[in-house]
Structure formats: C-alpha cells, structure tokens
C-alpha cells in the first residue's frame, strides 16, 4: 500500500466566491488548482494544521469553521493523499503567497472550469452542491 499523506485544505468563501490557489510549477501536482492548506503534522489536528498553513502561506490569521464529513482520497505515484476540507474565514489580509503561482476568487461556475488537482474534483463538486 502507498504511504498515506494527510492533508487539510481550506474552503475560504467570501461574497459567494471561493479562494482557489494554483500550485507552483515544480512542486508535486504543480500547476493544478487547489485549496490553500497543506500536510497535517504528527500530533496535530486538521484544524490546527489549517490555521498554521494559512498563516505560513499568506501571513493571514483565520477562523476555522465546519469540516466536510467526507475525506477525499486519491492515489498518486508519490503516495495516497487523504484530503480533509474545512470551511474557514480570513481575519486579516493576505500579505504574501509563497507556495502558489496565482490566487483567484471564483464563482461556482468559474470553479467548475479550473483545472483542479484530481483529489479536489469531488470536493469541489461537494462544495458546489452545498452552494456558495
Ligand atoms: N495544500 C493542498 N494540497 C493538496 C490539495 N489537494 C491535493 O491533492 N494536495 C496534495 C499536494 C501535496 O502532495 C500534498 C500537500 O502538501 P503540501 O501543500 O504541504 O506540499 P509540500 O509543500 O509539502 O509539497 P512538496 O514538498 O511535496 O512539493 O497534498 C489541496 O487542495 N491543497
């Protein structure tokens, strides 16, 4: 069995738009759109990991809201990503972005047109089915 990589992503929604982030080319899954977030460290909760990652990536404080019930898993050559998605709000401005080539606030329709990481495709469908 492939090594499991526990990852948490943020569904940050403001004015009916979702914050999508394009992974920098050269990283694993580079060039795909994803949720801001990252790997959950040992002995860390998904919520704590998300708060830490948002601060590291954007220099922004956040409030962590509700988690989606489902875990989205996808096998790659480097391991099996197990993605948890949690709604979150930014409490301060994004002052930097160190891991992404682009950030974009997208409507439901625009979100459907982005080239999401394969792990994220069912997660986006779930968010759209709930509405934002
Ligand atoms: N942050 C994030 N990572 C995701 C998503 N979907 C998905 O498959 N992933 C994958 C990409 C990475 O393999 C892993 C997250 O790791 P990370 O974002 O901490 O990446 P890292 O800096 O450690 O990456 P790297 O060293 O492997 O390039 O999960 C998502 O929506 N957000």
User: Can you count the beta strands?
Assistant: 8
User: For this structure, what is the CATH class?
Assistant: Alpha Beta
The gyration radius over C-alpha positions equals 14 Å
Q: From the 3D structure, determine the CATH topology.
A: Nucleoside Triphosphate Pyrophosphohydrolase
- Based on helices, strands and strand pairing, what is the structural class? alpha+beta
Order of helices and strands: EEEEHEEEEHH
Cofactor: Mg(2+)
InterPro entries: MutT-like (IPR047127), Nudix_hydrolase (IPR020476), NUDIX_hydrolase-like_dom_sf (IPR015797), NUDIX_hydrolase_CS (IPR020084), NUDIX_hydrolase_dom (IPR000086)
Domain Nudix hydrolase: 3-128
Protein name: 8-oxo-dGTP diphosphatase
Walk me through the structure.
- The chain has a single domain (4-130), classed as Nucleoside Triphosphate Pyrophosphohydrolase.
- Helices cover 22% and strands 40% of the residues.
- It starts with a strand and ends with a helix.
- With 132 residues, the chain is an alpha+beta fold.
- Strand 1 and strand 2 (17-23) form a beta hairpin.
- The model has no long low-confidence stretch (mean pLDDT 97).
- It is globular and about 40 Å long.
- It has helices at 46-58, 108-113, 121-130, and strands spanning 4-14, 17-23, 33-34, 37-39, 62-67, 72-76, 79-90, 100-106.
- Strands 1, 2, 3, 4, 5, 6, 7 and 8 form an eight-stranded mixed beta sheet that branches.
- The protein is built from three helices and eight strands.
- The structure holds 8-OXO-2'-deoxyguanosine-5'-triphosphate (8DG).
